[in-house]
Structure formats: structure tokens, C-alpha cells
Amino acid sequence: MGADIESILFSSERIAERVAQLARSLDAAFQGTYPLAVGILKGSFMFFADLVRAMSLPVQTDFMCVSTYGSGTTSQGRLTIKKDTDASVAGRDVIIVEDIIDSGFTLENVRRIFLERGARSVTIVTLLDKPSRRTAALQPDYRGFVIGDEFVVGYGLDYAEKYRSLPYIGVLSRSVYEK
Ligand code: IMP
Ligand code: MG
Fold this sequence. Notes:
- The chain is of the alpha/beta class.
- The protein has four helices and nine strands.
- It is 25% helix and 31% strand.
- The structure holds inosinic acid (IMP) and magnesium ion.
């Protein structure tokens, strides 16, 4: 697996430090409320688990699995809900927890759906942000790290379902997907 990773961008220690900072910011912002944290599967599973346990504030946890039809390393087209939240978002302060925002298409749609369903507020937390590739008018409220236009894997993020279990985030070698 090592040869497929061109370089390590964020070590597990660096990720843990940043996740702890994000958790403190969320604790402060949501003090006195009981937010509904919704992890977007599958990419956010590791970040989600680390983030909610680093928070002192109790949060309700839920998940949504969506897919955008698009190929390989880009997402475009239509959003399909493969698994919806179990809880109702109506009247709730929802925290969407995402692994990475690229075009912004996925979260623009998820946010719209939650607002249409009557969420009281929708806050977007993403571990990684790739603003150079944004096509939707979507900004995260909280982000861990800003990265350039490169395809990254590890710490939940995949390429063709591989590399999710890596404890760090690395840049995938172009040779892996430009075959
Ligand atoms: P968006 O709808 O273009 O913002 O795409 C967001 C989704 O695309 C993320 O939730 C990831 O699943 C996937 N994605 C975008 N960039 C990367 C990457 O560099 N590595 C792994 N997955 C990515
Ligand atoms: Mg994702």
C-alpha cells in the first residue's frame, strides 16, 4: 500500500490535534443545546467518531449515506440518498460532519434537504476543504485543513473503497488512477 501513497499530508497526531480544536469550538458554539450530528457515510466515519468523542457537549449521533453519480475522482450529477437519517431533523440544530468538500455539490444538496425538512440550523464541519475545485456556492462553517487540488486518501477517505483504514491522510499517486 505504501507505494500507492505519494506523500503523507497529515499524520495521525496532527489530525488528532486539529480534531480536538474543532471539538472545543463546537462545544462553545453549541453550549446549552443538544445538537444532532449527522455523519456523511462512508468517508466521515473516522473523523465523526473522533470528533464526537472529543466533544464535552452531549450530541445525538446519526448517519446519512448519499452518492453522487460521477466517475473516479470527481463527483457531479444527481444526489441519491442511500441511507437516510433515523432521527427527524425538524426543529433540530444539525451538525453535518463530512470528510472533504470538493465541488460542494454533495453538501449543498444535503443542506438544502435538511432545511426543507425544517432543521432549526444547519452547520457544516468538514475535515478537509479543497476550495480550488468548488463549483457550488457552499462554504463550511468549520474546517480542519485546506488542501490543494490533489486526491487524498486515508482516515476514512477512499479511492475505489481502498485506503480508508489508513491512520493518516496521504496524497494518492496519480499512477493509481491514471491507468
Ligand atoms: P463534492 O460533492 O464534490 O464536494 O464531493 C465530496 C465527496 O467527494 C466527498 O465526500 C468524498 O467522498 C469525495 N472526494 C472528493 N475529493 C476527494 C479526495 O481527494 N479523496 C477522497 N474522496 C474525495
Ligand atoms: Mg464523502
